[in-house]
Amino acid sequence: SESNAAPVEKRTTVCSHCSVGCSTIASVQNGVWVRQEPDFDSPINLGGYCAKGAALRSHATSEKRIKYPMKLEGGQWRRLSWEQAIDEIGDRMLEIREESGPDSVWFSGSCKANNEASYLQVKLCAFWGSNNRDHSARICHSTTVAGVANTWGYGAMTNSYNDMHNCKSMFFIGSNAAEAHPVAMQHVLRGKENGAKIIVVDPRFTRTAAHANQYIRLRPGTDIPLIWGLLWHIFENGWEDKEFIQQRVFAMDEVRQEVANWTPDKVEDVTGATESELYEAAKTLAENRPGTIVWCMGGTQHHVGNANTRAYSILQLALGNMGKSGGGANIFRGHDNVQGATDIGPLCNTLPAYMGFSDNAWKHWCRVWDVEFEDMRSRFDTYTVDGVHRMNVAGIPVSRVVDGILEDPENLGQRDRIRGIFFQGLSANAVARGPELQNALSKLDLIVVSDPFPTHMVALSERTDGVYLLPTATQFEQAGTVTASNRSLQVREKILDPLYESKTDTEILYLLARKFGFAEDMFKHIEIEDGDKPVWEDILREINKGAWTIGYSGQSPERLKLQLKNKHTFDTTTLKAIGGPCDGETYGLPWPCWGTAEQKHPGTHILWNPSLPVSQGGLPFRARFGTEHEGVNLLAENSWPAESEIQDGHPPVTYGLLRSLGWHEDLTPFEMATIAWVGGEADKPSESVTEDDIARFRTMESDGLDSVAWHTDISGGIQRICLKHEVAPFGNA
Ligand code: SF4
Question: Can you tell me the ipTM of this complex?
């Protein structure tokens, strides 16, 4: 009878099928996931979700899961115990390392892994002694990260889904949100109900286009000429935001010169969009500000994807749409944790928090990990190219892993070719190059697939030996945090214990580290429960400690759990407020969330918002850009203005990064103290700062927008030291 039924427990998880971050309530009875429903209290999905989200339960409980460790031998799959699997895989990996060096094993991470697993993947590779690791963001939004970071700083979405209620116009290019991010579309439609005008640019008439006030068809790959065509009308009619450009934008005159070449007839010739279409669109955008721009992989997955994202950004700068509610760049990511895995996970060219591979960056993370820098250095191969140590060299990206297997290793600066791959949550569709990939897989000595499902990678390999399958828990069988497209961290509670013989990502990484003999060092400050289960809260605390340079410090496990709990106490009035003006909490805690959790920084819902005090994340900015299209290259990628120009440029301020790298000593006391202020540590400026300086900082905070001159002082300092250390200021991926 019902009264005798086991109690039903409700747990909250985050949908794993796209980057919107919808909450789902799972009902669990007797350890069985019996029911799911969208979370009515979530300010993001407000009780709704799409067909993909509705299928979460079947994702976890699918019969097609890998149920136990297996090995392919003589064309037959043979069942193994976990002990056998880890022993055999570990021994083979160690043999390869002995014979060919640590770079001969390539590790994949995944945009589907949570923040804690992504971070441990980086750490495991560091202790293994290689930078040969990457994840699937390489082929989706890495062009956005590079393009946007080089324009105004952080390579991320600047506003949020909820904030789209406040837009007066929305310009979609390379995004079909109605199908790819359906719940985001409900916020778009709320914005439309509020009066926003929608323009959709796409080669296809999509379901998103069906909601547009204006649809413009363009020839595929002609995004930049189309943006130049829009800017041509904007400049021609004086519709640009002159004050904003004068105060905040570097080098718009160069864009103006370039745009002058893109007359309407030339643009129509290249793009197919007519003069009248682009005039109408430009007028709509000019008359309906603030407006946002939305893009997704339709804009990024091009050979000029980086330049596309810069062109989109330039349009927003010309219209003065940045740093305000209803404006910004709403860049829709793909997977559920593509943002977090990029921020602190295994990209082949960065350490966590977008730090490169300089000695100073390594020293920072060695301090966090409590290991000696020299010890870490000794783990890497002694093979060098041009005398550069392997720990300072970027690894092989996803897009070139096939070359790493097939090409002469010397061409890639490698001692030997890639002989073994450990795929944790990445499959063939993220690598592409099908026939070449198939050939490459056949040449490997070892393939390990750690995944809930047997992936395309296994099927494609057509091998008879040397493949292992490790049953891995789905997102719903492991707790941790994920970062949605709007930079917001949310807790994902564990719904079920791992099904079948599955283990979580972090357990598997721990078992490997133990096999390799460095678990004690790698997990020095991370508690291990039940013999092999790293505690996710400890991993997040370590992330808080090291990634504070990009504002991952204020989101402690305790604070995020409290927020998850409190969300369910919202009444409808509060919900309405959250769904309305985006001036308070939306959901999760978006980075930058400066300081410690106790300092209760609210997270930064709108990047570069000059109406907020700097201590609340309202960093004034001054953007720069480079553009390229078919050989046109105004400012080469990653190049920065000459030293004589630096007082005019204003890259974003990253006080923490400079200080943690020890480069702050290159700054003048005033520059250092100003950065300290922006980083939220005004009360702890360096000793050489005078009372006078402190008074200037106080003025700067209250001045808001007018304080840009002071911030220009800072940017000069940052530019100078970055030039000295031969790096772009930060954020390049
Ligand atoms: Fe899941 Fe995205 Fe659909 Fe939300 S919109 S339910 S996150 S797939």
Answer: 0.99
Q: Is residue 514 part of a domain?
A: yes
Does residue 549 lie in a domain region? no
Cβ 2 vs Cβ 464: under 8 Å: no
334 lines ligand 1 (CB under 6 A): no
153 lines ligand 1 (CB under 6 A): no
Q: Is 18 in the pocket of ligand 1 (CB under 6 A)?
A: yes
Co-location of 267 and 361 in the same domain: no
Indicate the average pLDDT of the chain.
Answer: 81
Q: Whose CA is nearest to atom 2 of ligand 1?
A: 18
Atom of ligand 1 nearest to the CA of 49: 6
**Residue 414 pLDDT class (50, 70, 90 cuts):** very high
296 within a domain of the structure (yes/no): yes
Residues 603 and 667 in one domain: no
On whether both 82 and 42 belong to a single domain, the answer is no
Which phi and psi angles does 493 have, rounded to 5°?
-75, 155
Identity of residue 672: M
Does residue 159 share a domain with residue 39? no
- What range does the domain containing 177 cover? 142-331
Number of domains composing the chain: 5
Pocket perturbation via mutation, ligand 1, pick of 52, 161, 176, 485 by most ligand atoms within 8 A of CB:
52
The pick from 39, 49, 486 for probing ligand 1's pocket by mutation, whose C-beta has the most ligand atoms within 8 angstroms, reads 49
Whether ligand 1 lies within 6 angstroms of the CB of 161 is answered as: no
Looking at residue 320, the DSSP 8-state letter turns out to be: T
pLDDT in tens, 574-608: 434 433 333 334 567 888 777 778 777 777 778 77
Is residue 223 located within the same domain as residue 317? yes
189 sits in which H/E element = helix 182-193
Same domain for 301 and 179?
A: yes
Determine contact, residues 45/20, Cβ cutoff 8 Å: yes
283 and 194 within one domain: yes
* pTM (2 d.p.): 0.84
Best CA proximity match to 626, nearest among 344, 390, 308, 360: 308
Mean pLDDT over residues 319-342, rounded?
Answer: 91
Answer whether 560 contacts ligand 1 (Cβ < 6 A). Answer: no
Alpha carbon of 15 to ligand 1 centroid (Å): 6
Is residue 135 domain-shared with residue 146, that is, in the same domain? no
Share of the chain above pLDDT 90, in %: 53
Going by the DSSP 8-state scheme, the letter that residue 34 receives in this structure is E
